[in-house]
Amino acid sequence: MPLSNKSMSVRGGLWRVVAGTGSVILALKMADAVDKGTLPRHWSTVGAYGWVVVMIGLMFFGVGSLVQVIRPLMGDDEVRWFPKRGASGELWRVLGVGVPLVLGVVAINLLWPSLGGRAAVAAVGLFILFLVITQAGVLWDNPQVEGWRQFFGDNVVRLIYVVVALAFIAVALVGHL
Known about the structure:
- By secondary structure, this protein is mainly α.
- Helix content is 76%, strand content 0%.
- The chain has 7 helices and no strands.
- Helix 4 packs antiparallel against helix 7 and helix 6 crosses helix 7 (154-174).
- The termini are far apart.
């Protein structure tokens, strides 16, 4: 089956299959350890958070690598890790907001463990609100969101995401977490 002109080499495809499969398997093993509570007891909260962050990163890398191989075989364009529009400036903006939010949640959880869940839920709402206000390509150029934008219009989609973001923040403030 011939691939498009933009397709990857066989070696690149095999590397992505091996690395992607290995990453997913390792992430699932890490998730199993979290579920069973077999993380070392002497680890600090930061160590446990680090474990979960690495686990999530491995899962995203694995699934993303496998999708990069499967989509071109199905006749679709090759998948990119980052949107075209975003370039590096947008990536730094998104990281510049996301990383401090995560660090803030970790700090709140360390200082006031009873507020950690509320801080995490509120941070999700704030991050969604940031993506909507800035129309970041990470969200705005997503093919599913583009379909919504074509069907409902930009303002309705923006309103839907603002309502979702405010719902997260409201749950964090008044919900039973």
